[in-house]
Write a structure and sequence with these properties.
The structure is a homodimer of 337-residue chains. With 337 residues, the first copy, chain A, is of the alpha/beta class. Helix content of chain A is 45%, strand content 16%. In chain A, the strands form 2 sheets. A 6-stranded parallel β-sheet of chain A has the order 2-1-3-4-5-11, sandwiched between helices. In chain A, strands 7-6-8-9-10-12 form a 6-stranded mixed β-sheet, with helices on both faces. In chain A, strand 3, helix 7 and strand 4 form a beta-alpha-beta unit. In chain A, helix 10 crosses helix 11. Chain A is elongated and about 90 Å long. At the A-B interface, helix 4, helix 5, strand 2, helix 6 and helix 11 of A face helix 4, helix 5, strand 2, helix 6 and helix 11 of B. Chain B binds a DNA duplex (30 and 30 nucleotides) through helix 2 and helix 4.
DNA sequence: GTATTTGCTTTAATCGTTTAAAGTATTACA
DNA sequence: TGTAATACTTTAAACGATTAAAGCAAATAC
């Protein structure tokens, strides 16, 4: 079946393509198209099942109505969640989303953003990978509208939607203190990512402000590529020594999963032997024998905000926004009271 | 910073745009461009950091090098897995993937495919939702190349990549028989989806061939929107009566999760109280106290095959393929021996 | 009776590429 | 010397839409 073009409708009705374009783009009034012709055109479009060629449209208008999204790793629950939220909001505003995953690799990240820009996306929503600072600067110079999500670089002045990671961690520790814990440990990733460093800072400050005991073995940074091995050691050291920790806060959902698995293997029971708190939730928690207390990122709101800001930028409204969201605290049964 | 066009390179070097186009598209030899000019053009392209406008390119060549993918529900592990596989293979062949989730809604499914077709994707990979048969027929008539994955309609002759669901279920039951189970139950969804009905058929035939006891309460179909409630009843009935089932096979990963949760709530221990087998794996299994034996779909191979077939179709190689894959059996510790 | 306005429609350039087809030197050969 | 072949290069139409600008009747103004 041959594709129906604007020209075909014009021919069918017996007018020029200009009229057809005006009518189908809702400019019938403005361009003073006669009611008669307008009606005929609309009918013909339906009858012939006209589907405009978006590529031609885009070339002419220089707008693709497409948003490029680069997430850090599609396997993260955060990624699927934020993707969903962004897609929903984008659809509401009549944008399509093309996305890719950088798999936490700076080079892949650059490549991906370039591919998306070449495909003439109107703007980008990015969860930048580690070491992608340079690429962000380039992007900024190129004038492509973009918004960072979740992660940002304190040295670059960009639009972003982020979590108040410092506060969230501080609050989590405070909750543990309030529920009677005194020897609180924290397991994070070995990273240069600012948002994770902020979690470190939150932990440290909270310990200090609450005058809690600190212990180098209670604050661990695991190598992202060796979580399993490093976790084995880290959890053992938390518990085995003469001075065991009484609560552990995991900095990411993946760490929580790895940690809980390890506790299972060691026969450690939660919360009897140690209390557990997690940053973010994982599907895997569903089948753990006890619900895990955690800080929940408001993904829907964050995604929505990111699209809002981006669309404003695309429409040349000189938005400049750096939004911080708070986590919700979801109480489980993984902390002894 | 202004975008660099083909024209700019031409001007910079002092030749026509045609030459530039030939060189940058690897037709320098074929079109007998002088080595001198070819070199100059290549240098200029790099120097000016030329990025071709894909939209213009697509309009002219009528190829977007884009594949549209519609999955049934992005929250399924199957969906993220197959998406990943498809993206990887697509990238290898220099295609971009645009995707959307129909959320198991036929109307949304139609809408999405239309959007993708309007965006001039070169072809589609589809996991059709229930009741989308009509849309598939329309698509077929329109001549758009497409491949179905996971699900297909026995009454429509399309290209597809699927699982041999009948055999997989038959084999799963046979395994349970071999390991000494005699009262095998099966929990599936209430559905008209062919691939799930095939699982029913596999279960029934296996029971018959092995001369096993059948029992209406051992074969349940839960309403997709009410899995939790229905599961509560179904699992209770499996176990409470005078004649309890000794093994249960779940037809999907989501059913497995819901079922295992319910077993947890009832205090049923796996595999002591009942053996469990699952179709497909879920991340959530990670934190269950025992590894779940399951049939694993070869997502990578399926995704790869789907892209292969689609690309052939796009290149007008009159492929006609209906591929079936076998599941791998992953032994866990959820079945009593 | 001519000029102007109104109401509506068409013409044609444009977006940034690709690519037949035509153009133009240079060399080869009779 | 004239013609043909060779080796390049340029011209310009196309892809399918949008949209200023121009065109053209009929109605109104003076």
């Amino acid at each position: 079946m041959k594709k129906v073009l604007l020209k075909d409708i014009a021919q069918h009705v017996g007018v020029s393509t200009a009229l057809v374009s005006y009518v189908l783009n809702g400019q019938a009034e403005e361009k003073q198209v006669s009611k008669e012709n307008a009606e005929k055109i609309r009918l013909a479009a339906i009858e012939l099942n006209y589907q405009p060629n978006q590529v031609a449209k885009s070339l002419r208008t220089q707008k693709t109505h497409t948003i490029g999204l680069v997430v850090a790793d599609i396997n993260y629950r955060f990624s699927t969640g934020i993707t969903r939220a962004i897609e929903a909001e984008a659809k509401r505003r009549n944008f399509t989303v093309i996305y890719g995953s950088s798999d936490e690799d700076a080079q892949k990240f650059s490549q991906l953003t370039n591919v998306l820009v070449n495909r003439q996306v109107d703007g980008l929503i990015l969860v930048p990978s580690e070491d992608s600072e340079e690429q962000i600067v380039l992007l900024q110079q190129s004038g492509t509208p973009f918004v960072l999500v979740d992660r940002y670089f304190p040295n670059i002045d960009t639009n972003y939607v982020a979590l108040d990671n410092y506060q969230a961690t501080y609050d989590a520790v405070s909750y543990l203190v309030k529920t009677g814990h005194k020897k609180i440990s924290f397991i994070n990733l070995e990273t240069s990512l600012f948002h994770l460093l902020e979690r470190d800072r939150g932990y440290r400050d909270a310990l200090k402000d609450h005058h809690l005991e600190t212990n180098p073995e209670w604050m661990r940074h695991l190598r992202p590529q060796h979580i399993k091995e490093d976790m084995e050691l880290a959890t053992r050291q938390l518990l085995e020594r003469g001075n065991p920790s009484d609560a552990v806060l995991f900095a990411t959902d993946r760490l929580s999963i790895a940690g809980l698995k390890q506790f299972n293997d060691y026969g450690i029971r939660i919360p009897k032997d140690i209390s557990v708190m997690s940053f973010d939730e994982a599907d895997a928690f569903d089948l753990f024998y006890c619900p895990i207390s955690h800080s929940r990122q408001p993904l829907e709101k964050m995604g929505e905000a990111a699209v809002d800001i981006l669309v404003d930028l695309i429409n040349k409204e000189n938005t400049h926004k750096q939004l911080y969201f708070r986590t919700d605290f979801i109480a489980g049964k993984s902390c002894r009271e």
